[in-house]
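Here is one chain, start to finish.
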Amino acid sequence: MPRSRAHAAQFRQTLALFAIFGHPIRVVMFQRLAKTPMTAGELARTLPVSRTAVVQHLKRMEAQGLAPLRQWLEKHRNKPSTKHPPASTNAGNS
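Its structure:
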């Protein structure tokens, strides 16, 4: 009997993963985040949904263990932007 319960639990986990990837936006988000870290705003700019919707999708993915959102945010929240390097403090001292 314990074996069938273990199989049932594993089957439920597998079904939950299929449910998460049943939404095409989540598939695209997962693929993009696997390639490069992005904020919810950056993801939203590349998708046909709002930032709020992106956050809700990330929460659903995190609940299944696919997107550790809190850890990711802590790691990347204060990362320096490479798009706009900080201005030099000695700009006028040449």
